Amino acid sequence: MRVLRLLKWTLLVLPLVLVAIFAIAWWRSDNDCAARASSTQKVPMRALVYCDYGTPDVLTIAQVEKPVPQETQVLVRVRAASVNPVDWHMIRGTPYVMRIDSGLRKPAVTRTGVDFAGVVEAVGRQVSRFKVGDEVFGGRTGALAEYVVVSADRAIVHKPALITFDQAAAVGVAGLTALQGIRDRGEVRKGERVLINGASGGVGTFAVQIAKHIGAEVTGVCSTRNVDLVRSLGADHVIDYTKDDFTTRTAAYDMLLDNVGNRPLSACRRVLTPNGRYVLVGGGGPNDHRIVGPLGRVASIYLMKPFVRQEMSMFIADLNRRDLEWFADAMGTGVVSAVIDRRYPFAQAAEAMRYLESGRARGKVIVTMD
Length: 370
Description:
Helix content is 32%, strand content 24%. It is of the alpha/beta class. The protein folds into two domains: 33-171 and 338-368, Alpha-Beta Complex (Quinone Oxidoreductase, Chain A, domain 1); 174-314, NAD(P)-binding Rossmann-like Domain (Rossmann fold), CATH 3.40.50. The strands form three sheets. Strands 3, 4, 5, 6, 7, 14 and 15 form a seven-stranded mixed β-sheet that branches. The radius of gyration is 22 Å and the shape is globular. The N and C termini lie far apart (70 Å). Mean pLDDT is 88; it is low at 1-28. Pfam families: ADH_N, ADH_zinc_N_2. It is an enzyme of class 1 (oxidoreductase).
């Protein structure tokens, strides 16, 4: 009887919860994008904005209010930014399930870009780590703009003098995803065998170098045109997926970093040792699985976890100061370098996003500020 009562209450309450969730999402859809984009009440700046979901065609460069740093914040004049798959996911509003948070009909957040590098223009009264004129890099939503404000104790660090603004801007989401995926989630140790699926992209090019720095034996998976690139980054072996299927190997790897998510989980498990680790960090193009996207694969991972010896996980990178400092040191000493495919001026930021969507980018795509 207790079970029946619980089921009855669940059936009564669940629809109300769902209605509340969608009501909140609908309310968040009422953005004031047009008003903000044309704001000239205070000091203006240029920023990349989108008022509707869609292809990169919805992106426009508009005048918005220039931010003012609060007591613990830093104002950075952006010199370069980079684009990531998360950007075009947000712009397209796909997978659709994410619109419960980002707005059902229209985007609640209308600015894009995360990774940036630039020069400190102003600091809050309580900031001591940075001063005007410092060259910095880090991550903050809305980075595709002339200026960005960042909390001084969060995702912002000094840029090494030996690397360019473009190289520093390439780190952000991709670099920290690679570092945290290999070092933390993958727990890669010296001498282990690591497979990186999608080794020529933004995350993959960093991941190959990080795994080699740790001392792992690295195998990268990429297309024919990227074989030489991946090998030049230090990969011990390269699998050309147009000619060979990496899932035909059995118990060959201690860890698999999956940037693509294009092979069945059962096949991915087969290539791992009995105690191997599978880490999913990406997957799906702009037209793949529009309703749930990679969330279906994520659900399968968590349903599978209690029943298999191998460690199965996924994660979203945490943009934090400690790991950005790691990159500042590694890039400043030549341990890791950024692979940059193309650079676009700010006026062509939509074109940069379109190129990234194509899935053809080798390493990172950079947007430079005029």
